[in-house]
Structure formats: structure tokens, C-alpha cells
Write a structure and sequence with these properties.
- The protein is mainly α.
- The protein has one domain.
- The chain is 67% helix and 0% strand.
- It has 21 helices and no strands.
- It has helices at residues 7-30, 37-50, 58-67, 80-85, 87-90, 94-119, 125-137, 148-155, 159-174, 178-191, 196-204, 208-229, 231-242, 267-275, 289-316, 326-341, 355-362, 365-369, 371-385, 400-404, 406-430.
- It is globular, with a radius of gyration of 21 Å.
Amino acid sequence: MPPQPSSRVFQGVLLALVVFSIFQAGALREHGAVHSNDFKHIWAGARILADGGSPYDPRLMLSAARQYGFDSINPYVYLPATGLMMRPLAAMEFATAERVWFWLNLALVWWCVIAGPRLMRVERPWLAQAAGALFIVMWYPQLGGVTPFYRQMTAGQMSVALLAMLIGTIGWLARGRDLRAGALLGAAAAFKIAPLFLILVLAGMRRWRAAVAACATFGAIMMISMMWTGSGVHREAFDVIRQMGYGHSTWAELDMDFYRDPFNQSFNSFFHHMLTENPHTTPWFVTSPRVANMMTWAASIGILAALAGAIARARRRPYFGPGWTEAESSLFLTAVVVMLLLPSLMWDHYAVQTLAGLMWLAGSRHMIRRPLRGVGLLVVFAALAAPWHHLNPDWRAGSGILLMSLRLWGTLGLLWLLLADLRERMGERLG
């Protein structure tokens, strides 16, 4: 195994990287790279909700864009509860709120990198911290491309906040604090609906206290949200969420096609690029959108089957006991990756949420014992973290279409490595 560097030296290097990233952030802001394209609709949606309106009405969102001087705005595709949780920022003027959100995200991501490995009880925390630090400091635009972390920070997205919540959930679970873990996961699901999937996973793992606490927290936040905004707005929210099914897009009436945008790294986007006529690529085969959607369903069912099979094998043994184990952390992180792969939207900056899994594997003792797997992790890390130009004209036809979806292949590679890690850990426990 690689020798651990001097604790004082390594901490000094980490501190230097933190300072370096702060200067990077300042330089990006000074040069106007921070456009806050995603934070605009989050902030505007929260403000509209606070004023008693509905951010699911395109007319109100476009009116807000004109009112606040935004050159463009995206649809608000979150629960009203998200607006409730973001209300303190919505109470600020946009310029102030944007600055607070930007620097809060930078502080949070460094907390994830420095404290996260020990919270998750990674076996070689210094290696995990080194991997996480590299993921962050690579964020400045290089080689004509951008990294997921760069996109997260310049757009003002929510991936860092979700990453912190997921690491905190694993940290509480690892310490037997199931109720606190569940409450945090329930809050994460209210903040952005995708973690509801992880509550089902906890139930499948027989972590009943955590699953019940998550449901109770999510339900309580939803009740408060409904009392705040009314049931009609929530019905509109679920109508908008249904518009994000495979082969569909919100604001389609305004000629939006988010489900096949080049920066969308989902299965659905890839199959539409490969198999249907679209404005972004020259497909390999021209079929109907229905075929692309069926292929997406097949891929989604395949990865769900892999996850369900892992849970079922553990339940048959039986495996899950009263104490949280390393294998359960590996299984939960596997579920996080599946959560990212299932929807019609997996924007390139969602790769920030894979950082917990990347750090877990980087600090795993199995990576040291299995050099080929370690090489695989390096390839996956590069596919998820390296600067990339998704709009490169070379990616619009032929084999280049595969490279337009680079983050998809990195995410699938991470899923395979986590499943391999899970099998090995279960074998150690049960063998």
C-alpha cells in the first residue's frame, strides 16, 4: 500500500489547495464567468412562491426574468418545498443571494472533501481527500472544455448541497444514528426529489428506522410547504415533474428539448442522439423517439436489476445486521449512482454527486490490492472530472456521438466499480 504522507505535510498541501481554489473562484468571478444560469430560476421560483404565485407558470417565470434583468431563464422544476428551503436567499437581492450561494457551495464542497472521508469511515482517508481535492482544483477551464465542478459553480446549481447531505446521511448511518440519518435524507428529498429513491433503498436494506424517519421528515416538510403555498401549486408541481419523462421536456411549447441537450448525459439523451432525428447530432440509425425511449427503459431496468440483485443477495444470507458496515456504505453509494442514471435528465454537473463514490473507492484497501481495478478508477475519474467540450462539432456524428456522452460512460464505470467493491466486501463478511 502507498505510505501515508506526514500528517502535517498533507494538511499543509490541502490548505494550499483550498487557498488556490479560493483564488480560482475569485478569478472566475472577476472575469465574468459566473453566469448563475441555474440559480436564476431557483431564486426567481422561490421569490414567486414567497409572493403567492406559481413558478410553474412559464409566463410568471419569463416575467420575473424581465423584471430582474435576466437575459434568459430556465423552468422551475423543483418541489415548492425547495422554494421554502431557499426562502432565506430569495429574501435577498439577486446579486447578494448569488454571492452567498456561490461561496457557500465552495465552503461546502471543501467540507465534503476534508471531513467526508472520515465521516464515511473510508479506510485510507488521505487518498480519498487527495482524489476529492484533485476533482475540485481541476475546475478552471482548460483545453477548451469545462469540468462538472466548474459548471456547478458558474451556473449556481444544487449538486454540492446534495453531495453534502448524502455524505452526512452516510456519516450518521455509520455511527448508528439512523433517525438523524433518515431526517437528513428526508430533507434532501424535499430539497430535490431524486433522493426519494434512496429512501426505498434504505427500506430494502431493512434500515427501517432511517427509512421511517426519512418519510416522516419528507412528509412534514411537504405538509408545511402545502400550508404555505396551497394544494393547487403542488398539483402544478407534479404536472411539471411528469413532463420530464423519457422523450419529453418542460417548456416544450417554447421549443425546449432538455431531454436531448448535448450537456444532458442521461441514457435518454444518448439514445435520442444515436437513434432519432434531432437538432444536435446526425444519428447512426433513424428510428422513432419511441424506440429511443424503449432503449432507455431497458437500460434503466438493467441497472435497477443489478442494484435489486445486490440487495436481494444480501437479504437472503441474511447480511444486514444491527450495525452499519462498510459493505452497506458501498451499497448506498451504488444506489446514489443508480439514482443519477435513471431520470431523463443527468446534466454533466450532476457528476459532482459522484464525488462521494469516487472518494470511497480511492480510499478503499481493495484498490491497493487490485492494480487493474485501480487503473479502472483512474479512467473513471478522468471521464467524470476532466475538462470536456460537449459542444465539439466532432461529437455530432459517427463515433463522436459516444464522446458527447462522456460523463455517462464515467458514471456507468463508477457503478461497475462500486458493485465490484460491494461484492468483495460482502465476500469478506460472509466468506
